[in-house]
UniProtKB/TrEMBL annotation:
Segments forming domain HTH lysR-type: 1-58
Protein's UniProt name: Cat operon transcriptional regulator
Keywords linked to the UniProt accession: DNA-binding, Transcription, Transcription regulation
Family: Belongs to the LysR transcriptional regulatory family.
Pfam families for the chain: HTH_1, LysR_substrate
Gene3D superfamilies the record matches: 3.40.190.290, Winged helix-like DNA-binding domain superfamily/Winged helix DNA-binding domain (1.10.10.10)
Single GO MF descriptor: transcription cis-regulatory region binding
Species of provenance: Tritonibacter multivorans
PANTHER family per UniProt: HTH-TYPE TRANSCRIPTIONAL REGULATOR, TRANSCRIPTIONAL REGULATOR-RELATED
Coiled-coil residues: none
Length: 290
């Protein structure tokens, strides 16, 4: 089984364009064409209709998607099981959306190791789309994201609610806030919509940041104010002793979702890991942030 052919097929299925897939996979357009042609020859069927408008999947091309994902998942699971067969240690691969790593993944890993001391953990930060692809191909056991897409063979569960809270190095009341020292952080489209509604017409500093890590760096170096995940506040206070909650600032809620492959949703280790995530979110709820 040639995984490159399968992964290229899935990307073309998503982009509907050979050139776009070539850019995303950092290969040439002729390589994309060659891989798709080889896969079609192996399957003895046409998967895409090519045209100036792009590449549209045929009926067979659409039907092959579920088979392709199953093949990739089976391969990844077999490879991981065989590579770890001599270690006799439980293994778990978890990927969290970038803005959740600081506030959630570190504490979860500590709790998981306390519960399963011999566990081998592989933890990473990534973007939502890539996390879901890795879950589908078996590269990742559990994904933690803000806004997953509904995809066949993927089990989605809303397991908690994070809140963004406003913090400032200057004040704890909105009336005293210097908006020229406020940093807007682009967390998710869900956050952006709520933020825009809450502060319609308000002028901000001409600096938009992409993550809570960047917000932490700017607040530590220059001071000011920003919205951050509530679960990150306590660790942020350790790095910036004079930072405080802006008590009357509105909260911005954000649902949290776990994503696992349907084949793994009843796996005891996965179930145990998800229980720790739920408990952690409940423990660090906004009611407990001072």
């Amino acid at each position: 089984m040639n995984r490159l052919l399968l992964l290229t097929y899935l990307d073309v299925l998503e982009t509907r364009n050979f050139n776009r897939t070539a850019e995303r996979l950092n290969i040439t357009q002729s390589t994309v064409s060659s891989r798709i042609r080889q896969l079609e020859e192996d399957l003895d069927t046409r998967l895409f209709e090519r045209g100036r408008g792009g590449a549209e999947p045929t009926a067979a091309g659409r039907r092959f998607e579920s088979h392709c994902r199953s093949l990739l998942t089976s391969w990844s699971l077999a490879k991981r099981e065989l590579s770890g067969s001599g270690k006799n240690r439980p293994q778990l691969r978890v990927s969290a959306q970038i803005n959740l790593v600081r506030s959630l993944l570190r504490d979860w890993a500590e709790a998981m190791r306390a519960d399963v001391p011999r566990i081998e953990l592989y933890l990473e930060a990534n973007f939502s789309e890539q996390i879901q692809r890795d879950v589908l191909t078996g590269e990742t056991d559990i994904g933690i994201v803000f806004a997953p897409r509904q995809i066949p063979d993927m089990h989605l569960t809303e397991f908690g609610l994070e809140h963004y809270v406003m913090v400032s190095t200057d004040c704890d009341q909105m009336a005293d806030l210097d908006w020229s020292r406020y940093y807007r952080v682009a967390y998710t489209s869900h956050f952006d919509r709520q933020h825009s509604e809450l502060f319609a017409g308000q002028s901000f500093a001409p600096t938009t940041l992409s993550s809570d890590d960047l917000a932490l760096g700017f607040l530590r170096s220059y001071g000011g104010a920003a919205y951050v995940p509530s679960m990150a506040v306590e660790k942020m206070k350790e790095a910036i002793p004079n930072i405080k909650l802006v008590l009357d600032a509105p909260l911005i809620p954000q649902p949290l979702y776990s994503v696992v492959h349907l084949r793994k949703r009843h796996d005891p280790l996965v179930v145990q890991a998800l229980a720790h995530f739920r408990n952690l979110v409940e423990t660090h709820s906004i009611d407990k942030v001072d």
